[in-house]
Amino acid sequence: xxxxxxxxxxxxxxxxxxxxxxxxxxxxxxxxxxxxxxxxxxxxxxxxxxxxxxxxxxxxxxxxxxxxxxxxxxxxxxxxxxxxxxxxxxxxxxxxxxxxxxxxxxxxxxxxxxxxxxxxxxxxxxxxxxxxxxxxxxxxxxxxxxxxxxxxxxxxxxxxxxxxxxxxxxxxxxxxxxxxxxxxxxxxxxxxxxxxxxxxxxxxxxxxxxxxxxxxxxxxxxxxxxxxxxxxxxxxxxxxxxxxxxxxxxxxxxxxxxxxxxxxxxxxxxxxxxxxxxxxxxxxxxxxxxxxxxxxxxxxxxxxxxxxxxxx
Amino acid sequence: xxxxxxxxxxxxxxxxxxxxxxxxxxxxxxxxxxxxxxxxxxxxxxxxxxxxxxxxxxxxxxxxxxxxxxxxxxxxxxxxxxxxxxxxxxxxxxxxxxxxxxxxxxxxxxxxxxxxxxxxxxxxxxxxxxxxxxxxxxxxxxxxxxxxxxxxxxxxxxxxxxxxxxxxxxxxxxxxxxxxxxxxxxxxxxxxxxxxxxxxxxxxxxxxxxxxxxxxxxxxxxxxxxxxxxxxxxxxxxxxxxxxxxxxxxxxxxxxxxxxxxxxxxxxxxxxxxxxxxxxxxxxxxxxxxxxxxxxxxxxxxxxxxxxxxxx
Lengths: 312, 312
Description:
The structure is a homodimer.
Chain A: H1 3-24, H2 33-43, H3 50-61, H4 66-88, E1 97-98, E2 101-102, H5 104-108, H6 110-130, H7 152-166, H8 171-180, H9 188-213, H10 218-245, H11 248-251, H12 257-260, H13 266-270, H14 272-289, H15 298-309
Antiparallel strand pairs in A: 1-2
């Protein structure tokens, strides 16, 4: 996939996911309209939709259909958005801007932002329990171990894996560790643990959920999981580098905000060059891992590349 | 059931539920321990466990087993606890005490309290997707329409109903309306809407979940639902009356706190006597509704009685 093809692929997928999010979320005509306005303000704030795109790409790599994975993809984006709204609160990171727009609590007030986050997390589980189609993928893959039907047991597994990745031993746990180490010296193992939980767990589960919904076999699941772990960490390292180097135009928040808050970052611990080398190594491992999918894995290959090459 | 028998029944059930909660929640040895401490502080803060008790009682009334419903009962209590933690936050109701103890954010700080609520809501869905036994009830009831096995589809339905009851068109929606009407005149339809969502939706779903897990037929489901709607509203009316009349000893928060915050209440709109009559009428309707369960419904009958007679 060329850089131009990837750009087009990401844009098409983003539109597909935005359309699904719009369809699955309550409208601003639904009562109470104030909460649905706040929810939609944050969901449609111009995200890259990387996580849901990963779910769709994983499902396709494992021989499944995009339609089968679209509801789970939307649900993950809702969980991601809830985590951003709560992270931005005054009691947490106290951020006024995200992606160049005022954060939810700056527009709707703190109470509404807390409730919008709560509503989004809950809405994700409404989606996961109602909107994943029970029908089998139409095309059986070349892999012998495709079971075909993501039946109710598979859907329960998806709910379980996503809840665990988002919970106190996953994303929330990472946020706790982040908070506890603000203004404190952090060593590399702690920083790695922090990001493997705060951002890594949710990215990792995207790959697994795509696999489960495509009835992937255990070898495929393992490849997807390892890919997810590597690009999750690489994504965070690059985020740290971008934060250090970035500008208001590129990132939508003031560059160097980690530094201002004295947050530990990979470049601060390892230097920029060493951090960049590490990110490249992780991405190269991730790409090797999904070579097993052959042509069906080209999107995953290109996305891994994008993670280290992106400028915002 | 005599008052003494009910007291013993409620106490036995409370212990059973506390034991389940202790088993299902991560321990304070689980990393990061700070969040699990905060979560357990709030979950084990001396609640009556009314909602989980209702799930168990509904399951038994419909001919099911307590064991089948215990995980869902625990999950509902986690969701109830999360809602209390977030409601107590400075940006929301700003309460320092609940049930005579300092609230979560007073002990662990605002950021940790936000995250503890998030963790509890997520943990509820971990429980619902993993801990409901797939096995059928051992004893088939006298009702012809018992299907026997709460299979994966039934478990997905339980997740869906609970998520919808807790979400932006249920509990969170009620909290939004409550917040938007603080310091404002509220009429009876608005106040009723508010409570039917803020507290009513979760109580109602307890009865339905108990029924679903006991493979209740549609007539039974309807009886349980109507019972839940009536005692949910009665519970809130009595809460308003108790808040007006109560004392620090009985309620664990300063009496009249609704009044201090100028919150609309049923006694403020209708007077205490008319409010009390309404609560009694609702409870009497609730009891009639579950007469259909005969002897198996005695606990539901007694709990309805308890809702209007309680003093705290």
